[in-house]
Amino acid sequence: MSTDLVLSPAPAARIAEVSRNTKETQIRVRVNLDGTGEARLNTGIGFFDHMLDQIARHGLIDLEIEAKGDLHIDGHHTVEDVGITLGLAVAQAVGDKKGLTRYGHSYVPLDEALSRVVVDFSGRPGLAMDVKFTAGSIGAFDTQLAFEFFQGFVNHALVSLHVDNLKGHNAHHQCETIFKAFGRALRMALTLDPRSLGVIPSTKGSL
What we know:
The structure is a single chain. With 207 residues, this protein is of the alpha+beta class. Helices cover 32% and strands 29% of the residues. It contains 4 helices and 10 strands; from the N terminus they run βββαβαβββββαβα. The chain has helices at residues 46-59, 76-94, 145-157, 171-190, and strands at 15-21, 25-32, 39-42, 62-69, 103-110, 113-120, 126-130, 137-138, 141-142, 160-167. The strands form 3 sheets. It has a 4-stranded mixed beta sheet, covered by helices on one side. A hairpin with a 3-residue loop joins strand 1 and strand 2. Helix 1 (46-59) runs parallel beside helix 4 and helix 2 (76-94) runs parallel beside helix 3. The radius of gyration is 18 Å and the shape is globular. The termini are far apart.
């Protein structure tokens, strides 16, 4: 009787680096979807860096972001374009999606605040976001730009994303629970399912 073992090939490294340069911003993003949560971030907006760090840490994604933007105007272009470039990098790193868990969800509390994020790597961009921030800004971060970040990400990562702040009085807490839950939802969705390696998680056969 043969005792030869058949070993499955190791999955390819899910790493990507993308640069995006316009007259308004110069962005470089590098992601390792199978990292340990290490982050090197420099967007020029301190609170935004803090939020991006939540994605890395709670998503177990190694993340490098260098951004230079027209912050003398405001943070809009920088935040939106980081979302776009991060979306492009994640889409490139995910590859053909074979073996992907595909769906991810998370509830995250922080003191009085609670948020829920659900993501589907469907290949179809869509954002539904219901967040009523209790303040217009957190440090130098305009809270309206949270939507612009997620819209940019969704359009270029090609995911469906639902973001809901279920309760909260402190805008910092509201925003932090959103980004932490986003990281945790990404972590779940991006995990490779050992029971379906090599299989695209769709009855259509493609995503």
